[in-house]
Amino acid sequence: MLDHGAAPPATKPSSSPSPTRTPALGTRLMRRKPVELLVAEGGQGEGGALRRSLTMWQLTMISIGATLGTGIFVVLGEATPLAGPAVAISFVVAGLTALFSALSYAELAGSIPVSGSSYSYSYATMGELVAWICGWCLVLEYGVSVAAVAVGWGEYVNELLDGTIGVTIPDAVAAPLGEGGFINLPALVVVLLAMVFLMGGAKESARINTIMVVIKIATLLLFCGIGFLGIKAGNYTPLAPLGVTGISAAAATLFFSYIGFDAASTAGEEAKNPKRDLPRAIMLSLLIVTVLYCLVALIAVGAMPWQDFEGTEAALAQIMKDVTGHSFWSVVLAAGAVVAIASVVFAVLYGQTRILFAMSRDGLMPKAFAKVDKRTGTPRANTFIVSAFCAVLAATIPLGELANATSIGTLFAFALVNVAVIILRYTRPTMNRTFRVMLFPVTPLLGFGFCVWMMFSLPGVTWAVFGGWMAAGIVFYFLYGLRRSRLATAEK
After folding, report:
1. Which of 249, 251, 261, 311 is 20 to 30 A from 428 via CA?
2. Which of 12, 14, 4, 45 lies closest to 270 in space, CA to CA?
3. What local confidence, expressed as pLDDT, does residue 22 receive?
């Protein structure tokens, strides 16, 4: 009895806060969000919910819309001088890199159909810190690529204006500092127009996107038909004047052209049947885009000597003019390119807002990004903030630096997705999967290896920018996300 009587004083200190109740830092950084919780939260935001209204066809159009555009209309002109006629091979190499990662995306999108894309996949498999790093890279991928694409849009606007009314936008307001101007006004305008359309709702936005995608596919097929008439066999020799190094460097640059095929995965919470439709949309969109890219590149270098691509803006429009001898067809192509590139801005901006929506819902970003408008079912405040940020970047930063910075962030995120597939297969082998990567684990390992290889093909200045961006992200996480994470608050 004496022992029992002495017990209360001995246990009293245990009722007060103890340092052991707060998990160690390493444990907090590695905390994972269960797949079931990710799926259960699907669509839920601050004050409202996203609406499930997108079909498989619309999801495919979102991915094509986010992918097919600046890479072939603008970046082709920058990559061809690096690889020569072998630029078509560079497209294949970049496409293979994207394919391996696309297979991993398809499996994860069918298993974890949420808006966060690779950020959410990393959260479920590798823990919060890795998820944050991935999400931060996606902010770079989507946000900066919107700006890069918008910069290319202005070049074709000038081509269209010159061919129709004989005037162009003055360099002072059509180019950023360092490229002969003060501000890129067309780039600013296209981002703001995309913002207005996105405010209307996912279903309405998808309809507009589908129309624009059909127009740009028709435009590229028209180019192939006319450009084929101007092919000269001599333009294909020597095939690789700058060797394997040139092909690799061009492939790293052209990988920017494939960014966006994962956009369908950001619509996981607005798809009608995400487990079935997301994998199909991702694979179908990549197939269509790769075929078009390789076909256009082969015809372009056959119709114009590869040396002439350097410094040529709106190269495809120039080829149309040279082949036909008339400016009419180049004007038609420029008009198609204006629509095509605008659709990329539109679709990629959509993806960026949905990724930030998921990160905000998890407490890693301010709550404003997860606030949903009850009338439209869209994150309107999120859309406005992201659009304003991208518009400023587009108006002030040159295209080349934007494209490379986007590529390295994307490759890093894709590498993590390939790792996530492997981890989830071994940790959750019985999970219901509507799509499975074939030749596992060889395929995701190849995807990871290709991504790392292409990252190291990018110039040192791009790595410096990437390092600075990552350092800023780590600081933000430790100052903000670490303590405000919903998983962190649940532990208290």
Report:
1. 261
2. 45
3. 57
Strand partners of residue 183: 175
DSSP letter string over 283-316?
HHHHHHHHHHHHHHHHHHHHHS-GGGGTT-SSHH
pLDDT band (50, 70, 90) for residue 491: low
Asked if 103 contacts 3 with a C-beta cutoff of 8 angstroms, the reply is no
Buried/exposed 277-309: b ≥16 CB within 10 Å, e otherwise: bbbbbbbbbbebbbebbbbbbbbbbbbbebebb
Check if the beta carbon of residue 101 is closer than 8 Å to that of residue 300.
no
Q: What is the pLDDT of residue 476?
A: 92
User: Are 62 and 263 within 8 A, CB to CB?
Assistant: yes
What span, in angstroms and rounded, lies between the C-alpha atoms of 153 and 147? 10
d(CA 17, CA 37): 29
pLDDT at 49 over 70: no
Indicate if the pLDDT at residue 15 is higher than 60.
Answer: no
Q: Residue 21 pLDDT > 70, yes or no? A: no
Over the Cα atoms of the chain, what is R_g? 24
Name the residue among 31, 44, 28, 208 with its Cα closest to residue 116. Answer: 44
φ/ψ of residue 241, rounded to 5: -65, -20
Higher pLDDT, 409 or 383: 383
Rounded CA separation 436/449 (Å): 20
Is the separation of the CB atoms in 143 and 308 below 8 Å? no
Provide the token pair at 238.
């020597």
Q: How far apart are CA 131 and CA 416, in angstroms?
A: 9
Model pLDDT, residue 26: 64
Please list, in sequence order, all residues whose beta carbon lies within 8 angstroms of the beta carbon of residue 352, skipping any fewer than 6 positions away.
138, 139, 142, 143, 146, 386, 390
Region for 117 from its dihedrals, namely left if φ exceeds 0, alpha if ψ lies in -120 to 50, beta otherwise: left
> How many residues comprise the chain?
492
Q: How many CA atoms lie within 13 A of 381 on its CB side?
A: 15
DSSP state of 242: T
Kindly report, residue by residue over 114-155, the tens digit of the pLDDT. Answer: 878 888 899 989 999 999 999 888 887 777 777 777 777 877
The percent of residues above 90 in pLDDT, for the chain, comes to 24
Q: Which of 260, 240, 317 is nearest to 86 (CA)?
A: 240
pTM (2 d.p.): 0.81
Collect all residues with Cβ–Cβ distance below 8 Å to 292 and sequence separation of at least 6.
68, 72, 217, 220
Report d(CA 308, CA 242) in Å as an integer: 15
How far is it, in rounded angstroms, from Cα 319 to Cα 464? 36
> What pLDDT score does 85 carry?
92
Q: How far apart are CA 60 and CA 278, in angstroms?
A: 8
Mean pLDDT of the chain: 83
φ, ψ for residue 271, nearest 5 deg: -90, 145
